[in-house]
Amino acid sequence: MSRKRRAAGWALTGFAAVIVFLALVVPDQVTRLPAGTPVWRAFVRVPIEALVAFAVLLVLPRRARMIVAGVLGGVLGLLTVLKVIDIGFFAVLARAFDPVLDWPLFADGYRFVQDSFGELGAVGAAAGAVLVALGVLIGMVLAVRRLAAVAGRHETASRRGLAGGAVVWVAVALLGTSFVPGVYVASDSAVALARDGIGTVPAAIRDKKAFADEAATDAFKDTAGDQLLTGLRGKDVVFTFIESYGRSAVQDPTLDTIVHAALTKGTADLKTRGFAAKSGFLTSPTAGGGSWLAHSTFQSGVTIGNQQRYRSLVSGDRLTLTSAFKKTGAWRTVGVEPGVTYAWPEGTFYGYDQVYDSHTLGYHGPAFSWATMPDQFTLKSFTDQEYAKPGRGPLMAEMTFVSSHTPWAPIPSKIGWDQVGDGSVYTQQKAQAKTTGEVWKDKDLIRAEYAKSIVYSVGALVSWVQKYGDDNLVLVFLGDHQPAPIVVGEGASHDVPITIVAHDPKVLDRVSDWGWTDGLEPQPAAPVWPMAEFRDRFLTAFGPTDDTSRPLSPPR
InterPro entries recorded for this chain (predicted)? Predict the structure, then answer.
């Protein structure tokens, strides 16, 4: 064999060893290393899986060795793909990928890319992801087989190296050696990943049964309609979710400056119109995404932390906040969902009399990245089609704002309410706004634009109350979840602000024992409840009391 061919062979073997080593030791939370920690420290590891695998391979005859090496390579390739997905999930959703329950999220991810970058971009991204996954699987099979073949040709050296590696692994395991907190030199991360993946199957089965028991327990299931929400009769009640509005927006020093100013001004502006507010915190079941999990938790009063629970919930008959209003017969119930771009049968489960989606809100302007329309337009369309109708009865509406959805660029600007029209006015706004590509080149700029998007959404809502709100309006607005870790950092809480705004002081009197703080901005010491508790607390606060089972004000 020529020297060049020998050198090329050793180079290829070295490359195979490197990719196998990296597949075994790269942490699935590599982006969550402590600040200032050199990344290389996370790779100073001795993987037990490699030692065990090559010990097995060395005792097998050549033919069996190559077959087993191929199987081990395939398993390692699959685990590597799952680890890459985990890294993405931790970066976006601040949690690991669940290989049993999370597959539907890929469809949502595809739709997000499609809405942000067009059909061609989505197809290209999906095709690229599939090709990369196949490449990893095939490449890992070839790499392990090559290493097995080389080890077989050099058995003596391989056995010595294996014995030395085993001694080192035992030594650093006993010493607990670690160059990065929580990342030990004696590595077994691939085994742990496989164990956790397999463990999700029985965990999912147990969770399904646990959820069935939780959902079956409902203190308000058999409450008669005339005993529900008696303290709000005659009121218009509007629940509004502000996308990605998390606790960090009001308490992170790098974000809250302009948000604090907007909330302070909003509180003062509403006060001039006779409105007051109280605010607290809820803990969302999700972070970074999965808004529907938060919405369904808030509505149903049970924690919906995964897709299996969501599917079980919407296929059942659990009382939601919307259906509680509907059960009374005293409200028309409306859902305003600009982010819904396809069939949404869940609307029936929630109990809406009418659902307005991206196709029926009448928008004829440009999309702002994922956001199909600006929040101000959503409010104006709701006002024109429902809220401002003459002679109507009381309304209960659930509305979802989308302008503060990632990637927070471009962001619309607030305009006069009489300028909104059919939305075509936003064409020029979008052309002049920062693009996603411009913003996502700089982490600091991403954070700044996120804060601006929250200010826009909250500002649109406050302006709407000033313009259209009357004595009978009760507004509840809250975040669905914290934004991605790229904005809030690692380890951020799942808390989101929630605020009740009302003109009639008797409404806020009903929640005076909640301990919430005055104004649109909850203070750091404000109470924090699980989001699943809100439904029951709300229905209790506004249900019959000893001194009043009559409306707070006469129906219209």
Answer: Alkaline_phosphatase_core_sf
Using DSSP's 3-state secondary structure scheme, residue 236 falls into strand
Q: pTM here?
A: 0.80
> Is the Cα dihedral 210, 214, 217, 221 positive or negative?
negative
Nearest CA to 540 among 269, 319, 229? 229
Identity at 346, one-letter amino acid code: E
* Angle separating helix axes 321-328 and 534-541, nearest 10 degrees: 30
Three-state secondary structure call for residue 224:
coil
* Residue among 493, 511, 472 at smallest CA distance from 248: 493
SS3 (DSSP) at 19:
helix
The one-character DSSP state at 355 is: E
How is residue 463 annotated by DSSP?
H
- Among 392, 348, 346, 384, residue whose Cα is nearest residue 363: 384
User: Hey, what are 417's tokens?
Assistant: 């309410």
Q: Which residue has the tokens 């972070």?
A: 287
Contacts for 508 with CB less than 8 Å, ≥ 6 apart? 276, 277, 278, 500, 502
Give CA–CA dist 319/325, Å, rounded: 10
DSSP assignment string, 484-525: -HHHH-TT---EEEEEEEESSHHHHHTTGGG-PEESSS--TT
DSSP string, 376-394: HHHHHHHIIIIIT-TT---
CA angle 26, 32, 37 (to 5 degrees): 85
Cα gap 486→32, rounded to integer Å? 11
Phi (first) and psi of residue 499, to 5 degrees: -135, 140
Q: Would you say 522 and 516 are in contact if contact means Cβ atoms under 8 Å apart? A: yes
Q: Which of 356, 352, 358 lies closest to 336, judged by CA?
A: 356
Q: Is 415 exposed, middle or buried (0-12, 13-18, 19+ CB in 10 A)?
A: middle
Tens digits of pLDDT across the chain (556 residues): 577 788 888 888 889 888 888 888 877 665 555 555 666 676 777 788 888 888 888 889 989 989 999 998 898 888 888 888 877 777 777 777 777 677 777 877 777 677 667 788 888 888 988 999 999 999 999 999 998 888 888 888 888 888 888 888 788 777 777 766 667 677 777 777 766 666 666 777 787 888 888 989 999 999 999 999 999 999 999 999 999 999 999 999 888 889 999 999 999 999 999 999 999 999 999 999 889 999 999 999 999 998 889 999 999 999 999 999 999 999 999 999 999 988 888 889 999 999 999 999 999 999 998 899 999 999 999 999 999 999 999 999 999 999 999 999 999 999 999 999 999 999 999 999 999 889 998 999 999 999 999 999 999 999 999 999 999 999 999 999 999 999 998 889 999 999 999 999 999 999 999 999 999 999 999 999 999 999 999 999 999 975 444 444 433 3
Contacts of residue 14, defined as CB under 8 A and 6 or more positions apart, other chains included, come to none
Element (H, E) at 333: strand 332-337
